[in-house]
Design brief:
- This protein is mostly beta strands.
- Helix content is 0%, strand content 49%.
- The chain contains no helices and 11 strands.
- Strands 2, 4, 5, 6, 9, 10 and 11 form a 7-stranded mixed β-sheet that branches. The protein has a 4-stranded antiparallel β-sheet with strand order 1-3-8-7, with no helix packed on it.
- It is globular.
């Protein structure tokens, strides 16, 4: 299976932008649907965005719709999360995750338990 490494987190001010990257190694990256989750202190891990294996079908949580964009480059084995107009409530550890759902035209968001591969996480802190 793939291994995942995230990068791109940091400390920013409200209204700023960040782009998170998730680089995969190992098995065929395009076999996997990718997701970005986040977990704030004392809260459950929540799915922020997901993308199918082709990159043509995406899901965004209501809390980030219109501000965050997920994308992927299968040739580079990398998934991205572009985060614009960041808010203090976006502060969390962000995790990249993968689940094997090749050949499906439509993304299936799913829950954290359905994703089998996880990165180590990257901290995003948004100050007001």
């Amino acid at each position: 299976q793939v291994q995942l490494v995230e990068s791109g987190g940091g400390l920013v001010q409200a209204g700023d932008s960040l782009r998170l990257s998730c680089v995969a190694s190992g098995r065929t990256f395009s076999d996997y649907q990718m997701g970005w989750f986040r977990q704030a202190p004392g809260k459950e891990r929540e799915l922020v965005a997901a993308i199918n294996w082709t990159g043509h079908s995406t899901y965004d949580a209501d809390s980030v719709k219109g501000r965050f964009t997920i994308s992927r480059d299968n040739a580079k084995k990398t998934a991205y999360l572009q985060m614009n107009n960041l808010k203090p409530e976006d502060t969390a550890v962000y995790y990249c995750a993968a689940r094997r759902l090749a050949l499906l035209r439509t993304v299936i968001p799913g829950t954290a338990n359905e994703y089998t591969v996880w990165g180590q996480g990257t901290q995003v802190t948004v100050s007001s």
